[in-house]
């Protein structure tokens, strides 16, 4: 096995991850190769076309295209523009970037984050499955998600209807920390009926996406999203999945990355079970009960982890200013702009985040009050 090497870290380097990601033809695969070949993306930014061609996957045409595109891109300006909306993000140059994710051949160059990420020292386990589960599938999803929490795990899923939503909710109900990896911007809620669940996850976990804020759902985003779910986790559990389920993509990716894959066996006459049965026939571990599963994963059941006390006010400085300005009043956006002296872009994005995180409620006429 090749030795594990982190990319170069630091504020200047993260700006180059953003800048390189804007060059046509440079996807996550080539970005990682550039970082490893040159030792840093800042060094790669200075490389001429012949030097770039020494990187696997970059030929003369792409090298020349890169050389032509770079003069118009200012990494520091791109960083400042990405920071401006106020939605946190991380790159492989940041220390909080998940270590298991960097092991992928195509780690996401940017991950936007809402809520609080785990420290990634806890084992993360993915639970995925069909959007139309049976009562049997839902029962075992809830039982296993809660058992993983008791064993000290983070539960990761995709916030989709069905198995995903049940896994997230059972984790939250058990007092655990859950991470939702979405195929939209982190400020979008899809499906819309998961808005209450989304808000709960923000308080007790995190929403992650490689897509910029404001990105709507698109069919092609979800298979890409699945590689992040598989990559974040040491194991992927498929609870129910028909033969064409996207959950099978997650399972195949997890297997490709050398991670463990388990599937819940079901009735052969049930369409929702057939994908799982095919996985088991192909070598996936069989879920035969909670005790056996935890033993296979090298985990033990214990007391649910203690959750940290929830803050009674926002901790972000800009949110604190708005929180104090509103107080017990109901204020319009114009009144808030005058009271805080924030520019309208910063004010709007901060208000949106506070609404999504459950601090504020928007009333008709763009007026706001505290939600608690």
Architecture overview:
With about 375 residues, the chain is α/β, with parallel strands linked by helices. It folds into 3 domains: about 10-85, Orthogonal Bundle (DNA polymerase, domain 1), CATH 1.10.150.20; about 115-295, Rossmann fold, CATH 3.40.50; about 315-370, Arc Repressor Mutant, subunit A, CATH 1.10.10.10. The protein is about 45% helix and about 10% strand. It is built from 17 helices and 12 strands. The strands form 2 sheets. A 9-stranded mixed beta sheet has the order 1-2-6-5-4-3-7-8-9, with helices on both faces. A 3-stranded antiparallel beta sheet has the order 10-12-11. β4, α9 (about 165-175) and β5 (about 180) form a beta-alpha-beta unit. α8 packs parallel to α9. The longest helix has 16 residues, at about 135-150. It starts with 10 loop residues before the first helix and ends with a strand. The relative contact order is 0.10. The model has no long low-confidence stretch (mean pLDDT about 90).
Bin the strand percentage: 5-15%
Helical residues, percent? 40-55%
Q: Please state how the strands of the largest beta sheet are arranged side by side.
A: 1-2-6-5-4-3-7-8-9
Provide the structure class: alpha/beta
Biggest pleated sheet: 9 strands, mixed
Compute the CA-based radius of gyration. 22 Å
The CATH topology of the largest domain comes to Rossmann fold
Tell me which CATH architecture of the largest domain applies here. 3-Layer(aba) Sandwich
Record field, number of beta strands: 12
């Amino acid at each position: 096995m090749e030795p594990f090497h982190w990319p170069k870290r630091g504020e200047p380097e993260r700006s180059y991850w953003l800048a390189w990601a804007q060059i046509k033809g440079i996807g996550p695969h080539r970005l990682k190769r550039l970082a490893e070949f040159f030792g840093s993306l800042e060094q790669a930014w200075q490389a001429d076309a012949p030097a770039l061609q020494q990187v696997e996957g970059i030929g003369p045409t792409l090298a020349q295209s890169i050389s032509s595109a770079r003069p118009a891109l200012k990494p520091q300006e791109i960083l400042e523009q990405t920071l401006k909306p106020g939605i946190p993000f991380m790159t492989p140059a940041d220390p909080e970037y998940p270590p298991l994710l960097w092991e992928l051949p195509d780690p996401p160059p940017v991950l936007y984050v809402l809520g609080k990420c785990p420290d990634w020292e806890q084992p993360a386990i993915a639970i995925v499955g069909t959007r139309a589960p049976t009562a049997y599938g839902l029962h075992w999803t809830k039982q296993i998600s809660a058992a993983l929490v008791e064993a000290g795990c983070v539960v990761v899923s995709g916030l989709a209807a069905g198995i995903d939503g049940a896994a997230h909710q059972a984790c939250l109900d058990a007092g655990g920390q859950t991470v939702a990896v979405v195929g939209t911007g982190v400020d979008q809620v899809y499906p819309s009926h998961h808005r209450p669940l989304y808000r709960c996850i923000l308080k007790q976990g995190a929403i992650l996406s490689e897509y910029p804020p404001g990105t709507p759902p698109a069919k092609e985003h979800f298979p890409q999203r699945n590689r992040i779910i598989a990559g974040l986790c040491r194991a992927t559990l498929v609870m129910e999945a028909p033969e064409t389920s996207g959950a099978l993509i997650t399972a195949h990716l997890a297997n490709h990355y050398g991670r463990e894959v388990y599937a819940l066996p079901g009735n052969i006459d049930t369409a929702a079970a057939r994908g799982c049965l095919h996985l088991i026939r192909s070598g996936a571990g069989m879920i035969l009960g909670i005790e056996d599963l935890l033993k296979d994963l090298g985990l033990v059941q214990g007391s649910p982890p203690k959750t940290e006390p929830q803050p009674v006010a926002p901790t972000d400085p800009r949110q604190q200013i708005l929180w104090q300005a509103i107080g017990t009043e109901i204020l319009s956006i114009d009144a808030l702009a005058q009271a805080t002296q924030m520019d309208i872009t910063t004010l709007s994005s901060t208000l949106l985040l506070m609404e999504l995180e459950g601090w504020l409620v928007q009333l008709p006429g763009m007026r706001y009050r505290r939600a608690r």
